[in-house]
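Weekly sync, protein design subgroup
Attendees: M.S., D.O., the rotation student, P.L. (late)

Item 1: inverse folding check
M.S. brought a backbone from last month's batch and wanted to see whether the design step gives back something sensible before we order anything. D.O. pointed out we never logged the input encoding, so this time it goes straight into the notes. Structure tokens as presented (71 positions):
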């Protein structure tokens, strides 16, 4: 499991940014396409909004990898 920490000055991280920060996609464009294609889940539910706000404790899954968002 990969852990992504939200910066102290931020309350959340957007889904596309989290995928990039975790190294699961190379660019924001790649993130956009995999999210729009329904290949990404947040807390077990398919998420199609790239700008979805993620808070501490949420789990993102893509391509066999799981990312935990930590505060």
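Designed sequence read out in the meeting:
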């Amino acid at each position: 499991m990969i852990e992504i920490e939200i910066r102290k000055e931020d309350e959340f991280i957007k889904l596309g940014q989290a995928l990039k920060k975790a190294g699961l996609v190379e660019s924001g464009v790649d993130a956009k396409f995999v999210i729009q294609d329904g290949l990404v889940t947040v807390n077990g539910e398919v998420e199609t909004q790239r700008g979805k706000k993620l808070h501490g404790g949420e789990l993102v899954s893509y391509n066999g990898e799981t990312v935990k968002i930590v505060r």
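Discussion: The domain at 2-70 is CATH 3.10.290.10 (Structural Genomics Hypothetical 15.5 Kd Protein In mrcA-pckA Intergenic Region; Chain A). The chain has a mean pLDDT of 95.
Action: P.L. to compare against the previous round before Friday.
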